[in-house]
Amino acid sequence: MTGRGRFITLEGGEGAGKSTLLAGLRAHLESRGVDLLLAREPGGTGLGERVRGILLDPAQRAMCAESELLLMFASRAQLVRETLEPALAAGRWVLCDRYVDASYAYQGGGRGQPAERIAALEQWACAGLKSDLTLLLDLPVADGRARAAGRGEADRIEAEADGFFERVRAAYRARAAAEPQRFRVIDAGQSPEAVLRDAIAATTHLFGTAA
Ligand code: Z5A
């Protein structure tokens, strides 16, 4: 495969199955000859991983919504420039566990930060980089939280109440409805095999298209 790579992002609430899907999708894409780079947000670079540590630290209870939003975008700005853009320009595909849609869902829907503010940060920090395909793993909040339970101490964001995650889910679904050509919504309540099958089907159009 030649030309610019493809950028696929995975989104969803806590416990929706992104990590599980990532492993299966990686195996599938590599079996088709894709030179694949895995990334995650927040994090994915040396700087970003340190920012992630701060963002998820349960001791950072005093973090205000504005700081949280800016830190998410600080991590993202670094990832775009240091990792994502060079890889895509070199023809590699990128599979990223969360990207900018998560900020609209969590900091916008969850924390109530205005969408216009997030859009302004996106324009600045992401330098025009949008995903070619975003797979939204959609699952009722209670089901995701039940899956994630028992993993030890909740991080700072996982410790939020159910209402927060209901707003996150609603914001994700609204974004998917507004951009149906970029999003594929996958029923994450299915078996892992069925989720992977749907995800693979959603990627087929990325092969052979001119980027
Ligand atoms: N965040 C933000 O606020 N703003 C932003 O801009 C960004 C992120 C980028 C870190 O994300 C936090 O940062 C996250 C959003 C916020 N906070 N929260 N909540 P993360 O992606 O690193 O963490 P996470 O969302 O909490 O991921 P997770 O809980 O690890 O979920 P997952 O990766 O989607 O799930 P999983 O580990 O694949 O599966 C969970 C369990 O369910 C596991 O036992 C699996 O074996 C099981 N599983 C998976 N799939 C299935 C199916 N299909 N059926 C049954 N069981 C399943």
Structure description:
The chain has a 5-stranded parallel beta sheet, sandwiched between helices. The model has no long low-confidence stretch (mean pLDDT 96). The relative contact order is 0.21. The protein has a single domain (7-206), classed as 3-Layer(aba) Sandwich (Rossmann fold). The chain is built from 8 helices and 5 strands; from the N terminus they run βαβααβααβααβα. By secondary structure, the chain is an alpha/beta fold. It has helices spanning 18-31, 46-56, 65-89, 100-110, 115-125, 141-148, 162-178, 192-203, and strands at residues 7-12, 36-40, 93-97, 133-138, 183-187. Bound molecules: ligand Z5A. Ligand Z5A is lined by residues 12, 14-20, 41-42, 72, 97-98, 102-103, 106-107, 147-148, 157-158, 191-192, 195.
Summarize the structure.
The protein is of the alpha/beta class.
Largest sheet: 5 strands, parallel
Q: Report the total helices.
A: 8
Instruction: Describe the global form.
Output: globular
Which fold does the CATH topology refer to? Rossmann fold
Total number of strands: 5
Q: Strand order of the main beta sheet, please?
A: 2-3-1-4-5
Q: What is the gyration radius calculated from CA atoms?
A: 16 Å
- Binned, the helix content reads 40-55%
- Percent strand: 5-15%
Q: Flag low-confidence runs.
A: none
Distance from N terminus to C terminus (CA atoms, Å) equals 11 Å
Do you know the CATH architecture?
A: 3-Layer(aba) Sandwich
